[in-house]
Structures are given as structure tokens and as C-alpha cells.
Design brief:
There is one protein chain. The protein is mainly α. 72% of the residues lie in helices and 0% in strands. It is rod-shaped.
């Protein structure tokens, strides 16, 4: 014996109607979003950060001739350093 009061059909219809409304509402929202223009504003800090990152990504200039001179002088034992001059320059760089 089957008892059916019709509420099962009503619930199914309600669910289908809700799904249809969600689809239509989503399409309307998408259409509204298409009409609005997207824009992007970059702050001065962000632009400066982008510039610094681009600069940091570039390889530094290298004086290969000077490097070879120094390597050869070190290898021959002719490269002399002045520790007082080096320490003074290091301390000056910290200030």
C-alpha cells in the first residue's frame, strides 16, 4: 500500500525552481559584471617596488680585466692590503 500526499512532488518542484532561479540570477550577475569596466590602480610604493625588483634581477656589471689582475697579483704574492684603510672604510660605511 502506498501513501502519497503529493508533498514529494512539491519538494521536487521547489528544488527545480530554486536551481533555475540560481542559474538565471548567476547569468544576470555575469551580465552586470561584463558591463562594469575593470580597473587597476598601482600605488607609488608598488611601482617603486616593481622598479627595484627589475633592477635587482639584472646582473651586475663586472670588470673582468680588473678581477684577473687581482687574481694574478694574489697568486704571485704581490697583492698587499692596508688593514687600517680597510677598517676605516668599513666603519665609514656603517655610519
Amino acid at each position: 500500500m502506498k501513501i502519497d500526499n503529493g508533498k514529494g512532488i512539491q519538494l521536487a518542484n521547489l528544488y527545480q525552481r530554486q536551481q533555475l532561479e540560481e542559474k538565471q540570477g548567476g547569468a544576470q550577475k555575469a551580465a552586470a559584471n561584463k558591463t562594469a569596466a575593470d580597473s587597476l590602480a598601482i600605488s607609488g610604493d608598488a611601482a617603486k617596488m616593481r622598479e627595484l625588483l627589475q633592477t635587482a634581477a639584472q646582473p651586475p656589471e663586472v670588470n673582468t680585466a680588473r678581477i684577473e689582475e687581482l687574481k694574478n697579483a694574489i697568486a704571485r704574492g704581490e697583492y698587499l692590503t692596508d688593514s687600517k684603510k680597510i677598517s676605516a672604510a668599513m666603519l665609514a660605511a656603517l655610519e
